[in-house]
Amino acid sequence: MTLPKSYWRRTTDGGSFAPWQRARQTLWEEKLASRLNSRPKISVCIAAYQGERYIALQLRSILEQLSPDDEVIVVDDGSTDGTRVEISAFRDPRIASIRNTDNRGVLRAFETALYRSSGEIVFLSDQDDLWLSKKVEVCLDAFAHDPDLMLVASDAILIDEDGTKIGDSFYAKRGKFRAGLWSNLLIGKFHGCTMAFRSTLLRSALPFPTGRLVHHDTWIGCMNALIGGKARYIAEPLVAYRRHSTNVTGRQKLSNYTRLKMRSQMFLGLLVFWVTGWRKKGQ
N or C: which end of the chain has fewer CB within 10 A? Predict the structure, then answer.
């Protein structure tokens, strides 16, 4: 019996094979491989502290989505538990581990990681969450389809300390995502573990302000708004955000005085950047 032409595929060297045979790559497979090989390098930046319970799970969920040329930069901010051991156990050349001898805080840990990054697309990550399987694919697709896009943020599901799902949407609980400068100075809507951005944004975002109260994710988001960077919200959950009693990078209840002081530090840092940039343009 002769098979219809629809049962056959053409290979790149002109030969033919039946659909159940895997003798040679099809044109589609070669195009897919070429796309993967030409995709931008990714840097994943993680601030870790006392994270031995969850960090291995998080790293596995990240590494399985990365290419051999990507990198994961973990700054261990003076942990006294087994965090460093858990990281070292991977023996993965894509992981660069930096250890602070003392605890310098989340802001400085992320700043160190970002300075060390060399990828074209930068992802922020907490130590205790989980990346859902399509996170990298969806984010890279957004950047690929819009050259003007500078930053993306996605929704996230909520899980408890045991990994049980406790919520379908982070932003449904926190309030609608907004990328504007003034709205984020009032109430920060950027959440680091859901964010990815082009590395060119770091030319403006680094260094971080000197105050310890500034949130790294809100600062990056506000800086993007200040320079006119385009941001996009992806409604699809791409992260499992873990809620537990020992969250380090999660939001904490702050007094009104602390909130005011934090906003003041943020505003002052943005003002200094704006004035400095204005002066440079005038020279």
Answer: N
Residue 62 resides in a domain: yes
What confidence score (pLDDT) does residue 27 get? Answer: 62
Task: For residue 130, tell me if it sits in a domain.
Answer: yes
Would residue 222 count as lying in a domain? yes
Give the residue-averaged pLDDT of 202-210.
94
**CA 152 vs CA 76, 122, 191, 253: distances in Å:** 26, 10, 11, 26
Q: What is the pLDDT of residues 213-257, one digit of tens each?
A: 899 999 999 999 999 999 999 999 999 999 976 655 444 566 776
112 three-state secondary structure = helix
- What's the whole-model pTM score? 0.82
Compute the distance between CA of residue 5 and CA of residue 10 in angstroms, rounded to an integer. 10
Question: What single letter denotes the amino acid at residue 144?
Answer: A
Strand-pairing partners, residue 46, are: 74, 125
Q: How many angstroms separate the CA atoms of 212 and 105, rounded?
A: 7
Listed residue (130, 46, 49) closest to 83, CA to CA? 49
Number of domains in the chain: 1
- In-domain check, residue 8: no
What is the CATH classification number for the domain harbouring 187?
3.90.550.10
Q: What is the span of the domain harbouring residue 236?
A: 40-243+254-275
The dihedral of CA 280, 232, 251, 187: what is its sign?
Answer: positive
Distances (CA, A) of 225 to 67, 103, 190, 242, 267: 30, 30, 12, 28, 13
CA distance linking residue 27 with residue 62, whole number of Å: 29
Query: Where does the pLDDT of residue 20 fall: very low under 50, low under 70, confident under 90, or very high at 90 and above?
Result: very low
